[in-house]
Design a protein that fits this description.
Blueprint: H1 5-8, H2 17-31, H3 42-56, H4 59-66, H5 83-87, H6 108-125, E1 142-148, H7 150-155, E2 157-162, E3 168-173, E4 182-185, E5 201-207, E6 214-216, E7 219-226, H8 228-233, E8 235-241, E9 244-250, E10 259-262, E11 268-269, E12 272-273, E13 276-282, H9 290-300, H10 309-315
Parallel strand pairs: 1-5, 7-13
Antiparallel strand pairs: 2-3, 4-5, 6-7, 8-9, 10-13, 11-12
Length: 317
């Protein structure tokens, strides 16, 4: 088999060991004959991918190939005389035609990929290699995206995903879920191999914005409109929270932009809840009020209050 192992994996000779492993895993999951039963060339292509990885995964063997000491099949080039020495080196018997392997400490993804490779090798040569007849592996994880309402995210709830095959998947939304968080549903992914367990469903959640509430960490923020008289005289008003309406006292002389805090009315967190932050916003009447206008005209006479004085002074520095 005369081929370029780098090109077979879709890589350049400058690829890192991590890039080699990543490319192999990807090809294993997409090109195995069991996954492509209608492709008569899938098996040959897969064997080629496995051979390329066997050569390049060992930095020492890869270095010898790059130096021209061995060919793409791991055979010594004619001008070299130490094939017998190399044959006894670590990893020499662990290729596509080698004996049993020790998989202790391997990444689960590597075991999964190796399982596919071994199955292809068994079909190709009818020889056992590494995995016994009882070997099993977990199925692949499936990924989904889900948009949930703001209040479901902060209060908890349930939602449902319609799968490509028409089936549905119920998702429990935990209280305090954050935008972009991924939920893992055990055993809701692809079927296992060789009787192995199903993979998981990984659901990445986006939270739909709310027209009243905003989330700031574990706090809930809202802007509360108040009237002029409520701001000047003070008042007790109703305020919405994520779990219902509560009474809030507006202090006398409150200005727009002042923030009042409702403790424990925010999002659930470890050891308690965040707060709700209420930003006051004074709203003038939409319709003209002659009495109010006349009062303010009289009230303004002789006053020299200038709330913008410090602002203008600071802007000139």
């Amino acid at each position: 088999m005369d081929f370029d192992p780098y090109a077979t994996l879709g890589l350049k000779p400058s690829a890192t060991q991590d890039e080699i492993k990543s490319a192999y895993r990807k090809l294993v999951r997409t090109s195995h004959p069991d996954i492509n039963p209608d492709d008569p060339e899938a098996e040959a292509r897969f064997v080629k991918v496995s051979a390329a990885y066997d050569l390049l995964k060992d930095p020492e063997t890869r270095a010898r190939y790059d130096a021209g000491e061995i060919d793409a099949e791991g055979h010594e080039k004619p001008q070299r005389n130490y094939y017998r020495d190399f044959a006894g080196s670590p990893g020499a018997g662990a290729g596509a035609h080698g004996g049993p392997r020790d998989f202790s400490g391997m990444d689960p993804d590597d075991i999964f990929a190796e399982f596919f490779r071994q199955r292809a090798g068994q079909r190709h040569s009818n020889a056992g290699s590494g995995f016994g007849a009882g070997f099993s592996a977990p199925g692949p994880d499936h990924r989904y995206a889900l948009e949930v309402p703001f209040l479901d995210a902060v209060r908890g709830g349930t939602s449902r995903i319609t799968l490509p095959d028409g089936n549905t998947l119920d998702v429990t939304i935990p209280e305090g879920l954050r935008d972009g968080q991924t939920l893992r549903l055990r055993g809701k992914g692809g079927e296992g191999f060789g009787g192995g367990p199903r993979g998981d469903a990984l659901v990445t959640v986006s939270v739909r914005p709310h027209k009243v509430f905003r989330r700031e960490g574990d706090d809930i923020a809202i802007t509360l409109p108040i009237t002029i008289d409520e701001a000047i005289l003070g008042a007790k008003v109703e305020v919405p929270t994520i779990k219902g309406t509560v009474a809030l006292t507006i202090p006398k002389g409150a200005s727009s932009g002042r923030v009042l805090r409702l403790r424990g009315r925010g999002v659930k967190r470890k050891g308690g809840h965040g707060d709700q932050l209420v930003t006051l916003s004074i709203v003038v009447p939409k319709a003209p009020d002659p009495k109010l206008a006349a009062f303010l005209e009289e009230w303004r006479k002789g006053r020299n209050d200038d709330p913008r004085k410090e602002l203008l002074k600071g802007a000139m520095r």
